[in-house]
């Protein structure tokens, strides 16, 4: 569950950073077209991966319900970070990536 939550948080962070305004508020410069496309693809890919992780742990119906809960919690966290501490979003995504790696090593 922690792995899916971390992946969803990174995914929503990447999707937010793919937008011009959010990227500029975090990095003080506009994103290039390539950065926007890569961040969008990474975001959608990680959301799909978080669903696959949940499917590996739970039945399909329960995994789908959990996915919506995990996505809601991750999206709310990204929204609050962007609203109050936008510059901390990339660092928070890095911490979530480390947490996902630790949980994945325990999961395997």
Molecular structure report:
The protein is an all-alpha fold and 108 residues long. It has one domain. The chain is 86% helix and 0% strand. The chain contains five helices and no strands. The chain has helices spanning 2-17, 20-27, 33-57, 60-84, 89-107. The longest helix has 25 residues, at 33-57. The chain is elongated, with a radius of gyration of 14 Å.
In brief:
This protein is an all-alpha fold and 108 residues long. It has one domain (2-103).
* Unreliably modeled segments: none
Mean pLDDT: 94
Evaluate the radius of gyration.
Answer: 14 Å
| Count of individual beta strands | 0
Strand % is: under 5%
Structural class: mainly alpha
Q: Element order, helices and strands?
A: HHHHH
Distance between the termini: 14 Å
Shape: elongated
Overall domain count: 1
The level of helicity is over 70%
Tally of individual helices? 5
The biggest sheet, with number of strands, parallel, antiparallel or mixed sense and barrel status, is: none
């Amino acid at each position: 569950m922690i792995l899916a939550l971390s992946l969803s948080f990174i995914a929503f962070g990447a999707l937010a950073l793919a937008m011009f305004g959010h990227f500029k508020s975090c990095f003080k410069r506009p994103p290039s077209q390539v950065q926007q496309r890569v961040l969008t693809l990474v975001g959608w890919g990680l959301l799909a991966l978080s669903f696959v992780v949940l499917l590996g742990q739970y039945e399909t119906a329960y995994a789908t319900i959990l996915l919506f809960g995990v996505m809601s919690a991750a999206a709310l966290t990204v929204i609050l970070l962007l609203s109050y501490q936008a510059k901390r979003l990339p660092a928070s995504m890095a911490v979530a990536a480390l947490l996902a790696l630790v949980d994945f090593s325990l999961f395997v």
